[in-house]
Structure formats: structure tokens, C-alpha cells
């Protein structure tokens, strides 16, 4: 069997999702044994223009990056969006709420007109090119990454949860964060993280994005029951759910 | 003879950077360190966000130093809103902060720099040729990661840090487990030192004394608190005056801002910390520094990598003491109590790559109205450029390949973390 050639690329982001791949430690060696890793700038010096699977981290914020992404898409049979910046635009999308000229002014002051500092509204990868698979989260979960890569190598479609974090949170017998008077995005956020934040004593901030058909009515009822208003929920949704 | 080096996106660094060299008939026409990373505008984006969500957002500035960014942010909020924290909270935060230094240093030394020292293009072929070294690196890296997991809820982007305290703290049993794990890491560290000491002489013998800037405290090698020290100054500078230290400016070579203080440029990071604080290293760390002969090489930027190894030892030794103090005092569940209020505050810690500053202003509801951050890698950009200008004439007679490798290794030695600023690394010989 020919091992699929895999290349990893990064656009605007913190590179924390690539770091989770490194953090798999020796397990990464198992994964590397079932694929041929041909390009990964952060981890190795080799480069390649031939690959079957492109794994793309980061959001797209400049016209030249859109061009590069289209080129990658053109070469890859399968394109995987890695992490919240790639799947949903991530925190980088908060920028789109402001006037772009003003944003540049705030950061670069009088120099903001210099051409190399140009920036466009932030896009998720699938707002530029078609995406075949998404690995959600900020950062991604290492086990989910390994599972998706294995599934792709075996030619199977990975099953990603499409139910809210509350399901996992209940299973872990956590006390609901609303009982602590907090605004938790668990009711509308895609599970798959094992309710990690509520399990460490705080609210879900929605890093895996919304479930495909979120039960907004149920979320409203939760808000009402605890005397919270939807505006507070929407305010917190600005962090990771700016699609 | 003409030489061109064009490294477009230097590999094995965090973020995107380019090196451009042009030598015509032996005359250096151009040597440039460029930073083309896509800017992300965090300082503008956080405006309007609640004090409760700020750490979650700014942690995402950097996947590798997310704990440092989170701590700088939380300290900034606490200073702006005059929120007191307990001694236990400070100790647990410092313990978490230490874990990130080791995570980051081991990643840099083991996965990004070691391939250069062992003549490989990445760590992957080293599995075949230097299995024991790779095994030790993996073991240390995993140790540091699970150390962060325990204190912050995960390896990257901490969950448990809150203004005023923690959302969850480890149990005493878990701390005892951590203590065992840390003591077991000591032999791994010393075996890594044995490997590195034989390779240290292969590092370029390049010296360029510069201004070194780091946090300082009267009695310790500090990462978490203190004031701003410089090798050019007898007196330390208060954190609140950090803007007068970094003097940021926009370079046409870079989307990231550059910095300068008493000279054209200054350096931050492990070597800067060593240059300012080495008197306070713990015994094993002192031994390792002596083994590397770091004192006589303290102006060689390539030795930043080995200063990181010295710090790993110092941190493990310090963390063991810290755990003993925590256990002796006994852990208490404390619930952070915060009433948001208007104010302005600065938070500062040493990120693995150097001193990191955050400043925030809040309105009465605790919403952020303005933010300013100075990132260590940005503070180093100017110094990398000056190093290249000083180094190239010394090696201009060598082959393009060698020039390229030395310049790439120089950049890697600084352990740049470009996505922080925004990103960078390619070498271009034009």
C-alpha cells in the first residue's frame, strides 16, 4: 500500500494546534509510520509540492494567503482544517467587528498605511476553499487528531460529535456552571472535548464552535431559568463563534 | 565571488521569518532579517471584552507561551482592579509558570535545535540515529506537559487561571506525585547535558556583547515578578514604565514591531536572564553552566540554547522547593472574589523567550478599553539583525550552504516565537 503523503501548513494563528501534534510525543511516531510526512515548516526543513492530504492550521487574513491556500487546495486530494482558527476563524475573527483601518491604526499608529502591514477581514478556511474534514477546538484535542488521521488513512469518514458539551458534562457529573451564576456556552457548543473547562471549574467558552443545529430554544430556557439574558450569552459567543 | 542566500520561511521555528543575503564580489550588499507573519491585531480586538474573558483571548496570542501571556494578563487585571491574591495562589501560579519554561525550552533544544547540532533536517531521522537522545527529550517534554496539565487544566491555553485565584487547584496527593515526577527528571536532564556538552564546541564561536534585559529581584533568579533589569543600568526600572524600555518602532522589514533601549537593539531570553541573574542559580544549574563554560560564552547568542538547559535544571530544583512549601502550608480551596472596577494596570512575567509586558485599561463595568503588549520576540528582532550584520563579514568566505546554516541557526538560537507578535522565518540569498 502506498502511504498517503501528508503536508502541514499554517496561516494566522498561535500554532498551538501544531504544538498538540508535537505533544503526542512517541505516538506521533506511530502516526508518521502510516503516512509520509512531506512538509511541516514548524518541525522539519524538508518541503514538497506533492501531497495527498493537506492539514491547514490558522485563519486567512490576507489576499496573498488566500492565493497560497488555493494552491494548496489544488494540489491536495483531501484538505483538513485544523483547529478553531481554521474551522471557524477563531479569536482572529473578533477583528472583523471593527473598522479595519481603525484596527491597524490602534496597533501600528502613524505607520499603519505601510503596505506590508496590510490585512483583510479574517476568514475561516472554508470561506476560501472547500474543506473535507474539520478538527475542532482551541486547541485541538490530540486524541481526536490521531483518530481523524487514522480514519483518513483507512479510507473511513471520522465521526465527530454533533451534540452539545452539556451531554459530556452531565456524563462527568459536573455541577452545572449556571448553578454558579456563570454564563456557560455548553448548551450550544459542539462536544468532543470531554467538557474540559467545566471539569476544571469554569464555563465553556465555545472553542469548538456551535453544533450544526443548535437548540437555541433550549439555551434560551436555560438562560431564563437562571435569570440571565441572551445578550450576555451572545457577548461571550464573540470569542469563538463569529461565523 | 557572488553569493545569494534566500531562506523564505525559516523552518523549525515558531512562526514565519525570512533571511535575505546578497554578496557581490565579496562585498556585502544586503543582510536582512524579515518578519512577514500575518498580523492579528490583538491589542485592537480585545477592546470591549469583559475582564472575565480577557485571559481566554490573549492566551491565544501564542500556543507555546500561553501560560506566560495568561499570567501577564491576569496580573494586569489584578493590578488595574486592585485584586489581592493569596500566597498559595502566587506559589501555584509560579509552579505552573515553571512548567511552561521547561515545556518550551525542551521543545526548542530537543526538537528544533538538536537536528542542527546532530546534522539532521528534523528530529524524525534522529529516531534512527540518536534514539537515546530522542527518548530522553520526549520523556522530559512529556513530563513538562503533564506538569502543566495538572496546574492549568491542559498543556496549551490554561483553563484554571482566574483573576484573584484559581478555578481549580490540584490535590496534595497530586502535588506529591508531581514531586516524584520532577525528582525523576533530574537524571534525564543530566544525561541531556552530557550529550549537549560534547556538541557545544560545534556551535559557532561568535561573540557580540549587547544590552541584556530581564526581570530582576534582589535575591533570586526570577521569572514571575520583580522589576526590569538591564546590563547597561545599575538601577532597575519599575514595570509600569515598560514603554520607556521597549521604545517600539515599526520596521519596513517586519510586520512585528522592533525595540531598542540604550543601544540600537537589546536581547531578552534565557541568555539575558543568565547575564543578569546567574548569581542566584541553584546548585545543579550552576554546575551545568560551568560544564558548558557559559560564563565565558555569555555574549555568544548561539549559547542561548544552552542557557535554556541551565534554566531547566534551576527550575526543577526551584519547583521541588516550591512544592515542599505548598505542602508544608497545606492547600486550601479559595474562591476568587472580584468586584470589577475601572483602572489601569501592567502585568509582566518572563516568557520562555524573554520579558513580556501587558498593559490594560478598564471601564467601571470591567470592560477593556485599551491594551498594549510588548512581546519578547519583537524585542529581539533588532538584535538578531545586528548579530547578522556582525556575523556575516566573519563568515562571508564560507560556502552559501554554510552561511545559510549559520544564519538559520542564529535565528533558531533566539527561539523566536513569531506568531506571538504576529509570525516569521525564510533565508533568502538574492
| Overall average residue pLDDT of chain A | 91
Name of the CATH class of the largest domain in chain A: Alpha Beta
Biggest sheet, spatial arrangement of strands of chain A: 2-1-3-4-5
Mean pLDDT of chain B: 92
- Quickly name the level 1 CATH class of chain B: Mainly Alpha
| Percent helix range of chain B | 40-55%
Classification by helices and strands of chain A: alpha/beta
Major sheet attributes of chain B:
4 strands, antiparallel
At CATH level 2, the architecture of the largest domain in chain A is 3-Layer(aba) Sandwich
Q: Which protein chains make the most extensive interface, counting residues with beta carbons within 8 Å of the other chain's beta carbons?
A: A-B, 61 and 61 residues
Number of strands of chain A: 5
| CATH homology group of the largest domain in chain A | NADH:ubiquinone oxidoreductase-like, 20kDa subunit
Shape field of chain B: globular
Q: Helix share of residues of chain A? A: 25-40%
Count of structural domains of chain A: 2
Structural class of chain B: alpha+beta
The N- and C-terminal alpha carbons of chain B lie at a distance of 13 Å
Number of helices of chain B: 14
Amino acid at each position: 500500500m502506498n502511504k498517503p503523503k501528508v503536508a502541514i501548513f499554517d496561516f494566522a494563528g498561535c500554532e498551538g494546534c501544531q504544538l498538540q501534534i508535537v505533544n503526542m510525543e512517541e505516538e506521533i511516531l506511530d502516526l508518521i509510520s502510516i503516512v509520509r510526512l512531506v512538509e511541516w515548516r514548524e518541525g522539519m526543513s524538508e518541503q514538497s509540492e506533492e501531497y495527498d492530504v493537506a492539514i491547514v492550521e490558522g485563519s486567512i487574513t490576507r489576499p496573498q494567503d488566500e492565493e497560497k491556500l488555493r494552491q494548496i487546495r489544488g494540489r491536495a486530494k483531501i484538505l483538513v482544517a485544523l483547529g478553531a482558527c481554521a474551522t471557524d476563524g477563531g479569536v482572529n475573527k473578533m477583528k472583523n467587528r471593527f473598522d479595519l483601518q481603525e484596527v491597524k491604526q490602534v496597533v501600528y499608529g502613524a505607520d499603519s498605511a505601510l503596505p506590508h502591514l496590510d490585512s483583510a477581514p479574517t476568514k475561516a478556511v472554508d470561506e476560501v476553499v472547500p474543506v473535507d474534514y474539520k478538527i475542532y477546538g482551541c486547541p485541538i484535542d490530540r486524541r481526536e487528531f490521531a483518530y481523524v488521521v487514522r480514519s483518513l488513512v483507512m479510507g473511513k469518514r471520522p465521526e465527530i460529535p454533533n451534540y452539545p458539551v452539556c451531554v459530556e458534562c452531565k456524563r462527568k457529573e459536573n455541577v452545572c456552571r449556571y448553578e454558579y451564576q456563570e454564563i456557560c456556552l455548553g448548551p450550544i457548543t459542539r462536544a468532543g472535548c470531554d467538557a474540559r473547562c467545566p471539569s476544571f471549574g469554569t464555563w465553556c467558552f465555545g472553542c469548538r464552535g456551535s453544533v450544526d443545529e443548535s437548540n437555541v430554544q433550549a439555551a434560551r430556557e436555560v438562560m431564563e431559568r437562571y435569570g440571565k439574558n441572551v445578550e450576555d450569552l451572545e457577548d461571550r459567543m464573540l470569542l469563538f463563534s463569529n461565523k | 565571488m557572488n553569493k545569494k542566500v534566500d531562506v523564505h520561511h525559516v523552518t523549525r521555528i515558531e512562526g514565519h521569518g525570512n533571511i535575505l543575503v546578497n554578496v557581490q564580489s565579496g562585498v556585502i550588499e544586503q543582510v536582512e532579517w524579515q518578519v512577514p507573519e500575518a498580523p492579528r491585531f490583538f491589542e485592537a480586538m480585545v477592546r470591549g471584552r469583559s475582564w472575565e474573558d480577557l485571559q481566554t483571548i490573549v492566551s491565544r496570542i501564542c500556543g507555546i507561551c500561553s501560560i506566560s501571556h495568561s499570567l501577564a494578563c491576569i496580573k494586569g487585571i489584578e493590578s488595574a482592579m486592585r485584586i489581592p491574591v493569596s500566597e498559595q495562589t502566587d506559589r501555584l501560579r509560579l509552579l505552573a509558570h515553571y512548567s511552561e519554561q521547561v515545556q518550551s525550552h525542551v521543545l526548542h533544544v530537543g526538537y528544533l535545535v538538536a537536528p542542527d547540532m546532530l546534522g539532521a533536517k528534523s528530529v524524525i531521522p534522529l529516531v534512527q540515529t540518536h534514539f537515546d537522545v530522542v527518548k530522553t527529550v520526549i520523556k522530559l517534554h512529556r513530563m513538562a506537559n503533564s506538569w502543566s496539565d495538572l496546574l492549568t487544566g491542559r498543556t496549551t491555553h490554561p483553563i484554571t487561571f482566574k483573576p484573584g485565584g484559581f478555578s481549580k487547584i490540584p490535590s496534595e496527593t497530586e502535588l506529591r506525585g508531581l514531586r516524584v515526577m520532577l525528582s525523576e527528571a533530574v537524571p534525564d536532564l543530566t544525561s541531556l547535558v552530557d550529550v549537549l556538552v560534547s556538541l557545544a564546541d560545534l556551535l559557532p564561536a561568535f561573540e557580540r556583547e549587547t544590552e541584556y534585559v530581564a526581570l530582576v529581584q534582589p535575591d533570586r533568579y526570577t521569572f514571575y515578578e520583580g522589576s526590569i533589569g538591564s546590563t547597561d543600568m545599575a538601577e532597575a526600572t519599575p514595570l509600569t514604565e515598560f514603554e520607556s524600555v521597549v521604545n517600539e518602532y515599526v520596521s519596513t522589514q517586519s510586520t512585528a514591531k522592533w525595540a531598542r533601549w540604550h543601544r540600537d537593539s537589546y536581547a531578552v531570553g534565557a541568555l539575558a536572564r543568565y547575564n543578569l541573574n546567574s548569581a542566584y542559580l541553584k546548585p545543579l544549574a550552576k554546575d551545568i553552566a560551568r560544564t558548558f563554560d557559559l560564563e565565558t560564552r555569555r555574549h555568544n547568542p548561539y549559547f542561548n540554547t544552552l542557557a535554556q538547559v541551565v534554566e531547566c535544571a534551576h527550575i526543577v530544583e526551584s519547583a521541588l522547593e516550591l512544592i515542599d512549601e505548598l505542602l508544608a502550608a497545606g492547600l486550601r480551596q479559595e474562591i476568587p472574589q472580584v468586584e470589577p472596577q475601572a483602572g489601569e494596570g501592567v502585568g509582566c512575567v518572563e516568557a520562555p523567550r524573554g520579558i513580556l509586558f501587558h498593559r490594560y485599561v478598564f471601564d467601571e463595568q470591567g470592560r477593556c478599553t485599551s491594551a498594549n503588549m510588548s512581546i519578547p520576540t519583537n524585542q529581539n528582532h533588532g538584535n538578531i539583525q545586528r548579530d547578522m550584520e556582525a556575523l556575516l563579514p566573519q563568515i562571508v568566505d564560507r560556502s552559501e550552504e554554510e552561511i545559510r546554516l549559520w544564519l538559520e541557526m542564529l535565528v533558531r538560537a533566539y527561539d523566536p516565537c513569531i506568531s506571538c507578535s504576529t509570525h516569521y522565518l525564510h533565508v533568502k540569498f538574492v
